[in-house]
Amino acid sequence: MHSALLKQACYVAGQWVTAHDGATDPVINPSTGQIIAQVPRMGREMTLAAIDAAQQAQQQWKQTTAKARSVILRRWYALMMEHIDDLATIMTTEQGKPFVEAKGEITYAASFVEWFAEEAKRAYGEVIPSHKTDARILASREPMGVVGAITPWNFPAAMITRKCAPAFAAGCGVVLKPAPDTPLCALALAVLAEEAGIPAGLFNVVTGDAQAIGGALTDSKTVKKISFTGSTAVGKLLMAQSAATVKKLSLELGGNAPFIVCDDADLDAAIEGIMIAKFRNAGQTCVCANRIYVHDAVYDAFTEKLVARVQALKVGDGFAPEVQIGPLINAAAVAKVQSHIDDALAKGARLAYGEPQPAGSFLFPPQVLVEMTDTMRIANEETFGPVAALFRFNDDADVIARANATDSGLAAYAYTRSLQRAFRFSEGLEYGMVGINEGLISTEVAPFGGIKESGLGREGGRQGLDDYLETKYTLLGGL
Ligand code: ADP
Fold it and tell me: Domain Aldehyde dehydrogenase: where (predicted)?
């Protein structure tokens, strides 16, 4: 382990700092329940210092060339890949996901840095045909300024890079508040950012009191934008808090993804898709399939194939060989997943497969529930756990209407061999992202994001840079 990566201090104005009063919060390994580190419990005061530092650094940074910013970002990308094993070790220790998956996330996280190193050079403006003969009209792109970023624990590295990389590429500064469960990945990424040449003050990481840090970020007139990934409830709160200063917002909030398996689907492909879309990260992703709608004609065959695959999943400590499902993040997550199962069983669902949850641990063995109905909690709330819930359908229009009957609109999936049905689902599903015959849609090259109450803005793709740029219109008159 490159021991310099394991930091128990915040990174503000290019300095590694602890709280004046020595206050800390523990970081817990969800596989063992052991405290693995302590990070500073900061609040408003340190956040304001970080905002000032970000503003000062950003004033210089925005004047650098896109190429200069690109070179530094590319170095950050290379350092992440060079330290992939150490970063993944930190991730599995604080988050629990299997080590192989943690390495996959580091590669995914680094891919955003590489992508935006390239996109930095493509923040093109426009010359617009003028309405006057003696004038010219320019629309140029400028960085928004200081960004407040707040991230969740389920992807402790990727959620950071897909905000920070486009922000830096655009010429912005960042004050980041990582999730309290997984601050160590964020701090390790800051070590590497510093080594890559991100200037002091441009990237600040403040751990501690979420309300105090979030309040300082949203109150500040210097912070021009909030970029948040997390629960819909906190997203709405930050949106309300941002109203007083009319901040720009990128919000990536909860999902409740439908996964539709038609009677003409390649069932084996659909099973491969659901194993990823349902069980990746122990079901703790916002694009996880929550409601699996299977056509009557293939319901029993699909269930049988799925149970066979789920039975073979190995659950345990993410460092143990061949483990595919690590622990859930904490006791509250375990209780929520169990309550969704209990609710479904009480309302008439049947457990097709599932071992009981071992008391006293955060491990949750995967479950398959069948004969689900639309009044059950899983039909209406994101479960965030390894529970495959199978609903029946027999009509495309009906299943599209049921799939759309939610306030969420993040990801949806459909499996069919018919091109006509593929377009019917792609166009009919009210979601920001649709996977047709594919269960893994996340990639740095595509615009990730939701509609309805799943959020605002897009991360990744060409569009990911737009979220950190303002358009400046200049009219050159009297020519
Ligand atoms: P989850 O339920 O997945 O933990 P949250 O929305 O609670 O989702 O958390 C996502 C991020 O939002 C975390 O970094 C968390 O600390 C932060 N957060 C939670 N409450 C607030 C708040 N009132 N203000 C700012 N950030 C918050």
Answer: 16-473
> Is the Cα dihedral 444, 406, 275, 315 positive or negative?
positive
d(Cα 19, Cα 216) in Å, to the nearest integer?
Answer: 17
Helices (H), 145-209: 158-170, 183-196
Instruction: Please identify every stretch of the chain with a pLDDT value under 70, giving residue numbers as ranges.
Output: 1-2
The residues, ordered by sequence, that sit 6+ positions from 9 with a Cβ below 8 Å of its Cβ are 16, 17, 18, 39, 40, 187
Q: Hey, how many other C-beta atoms are within 10 angstroms of the C-beta on 104?
A: 17
- In this structure, the residues whose C-beta lies within 6 A of any atom of ligand 1 are 150-152, 177, 179-180, 210-211, 214, 230-231, 234, 237
What stretch of H or E contains 286? Answer: none
388-391 long-range Cβ contacts below 8 angstroms, 24+ apart: 388/274, 388/278, 388/279, 388/289, 388/292, 388/306, 388/310, 389/290, 389/291, 389/292, 389/344, 389/349, 390/292, 390/294, 390/299, 390/302, 390/303, 390/306, 390/352, 391/291, 391/292, 391/293, 391/294
Q: How many residues does the structure list for the chain?
A: 479
CA distances from 414 to 95, 270, 368 (A): 30, 9, 19
Query: How many whole angstroms separate alpha carbon 114 and alpha carbon 103?
Result: 16
pLDDT of residue 476: 98
Q: Per-residue pLDDT tens for 61-88?
A: 999 999 999 999 999 999 999 999 999 9
- CA 264 to ligand 1 centroid distance, Å: 42
Sheet holding 136-143, edge to edge: 126-128, 136-143, 469-476
Please report the beta strands in 18-135, taking only residues with DSSP state E, as ranges in sequence order: 24-28, 35-40, 126-128
Q: Where are the alpha helices (DSSP H) in 158-266?
A: 158-170, 183-196, 210-219, 232-242
SS3 397: helix
* Residue with CA at minimum distance from ligand 1 atom 17: 210
Strands 126-128 and 35-40: unpaired
What is the structure's pLDDT at 3? 73
User: Which domains, ranges and CATH numbers included, belong to the chain?
Assistant: 10-253+454-476 (3.40.605.10), 257-436 (3.40.309.10)
Residue 440: CA atoms inside 13 Å, Cβ hemisphere, count?
12
Q: What DSSP line would sit under 321-386, residue for residue?
A: TT--B---SSHHHHHHHHHHHHHHHHTT-EEEEEPPPPTTS-----EEEEEE-TTSHHHHS---SS
For residue 211, the CA-to-ligand 1 centroid distance in Å is: 8
Q: Residue 398: CB partners within 8 Å, gap ≥ 6?
A: none
- Phi first, then psi, for residue 277 (nearest 5°) are -70, -20
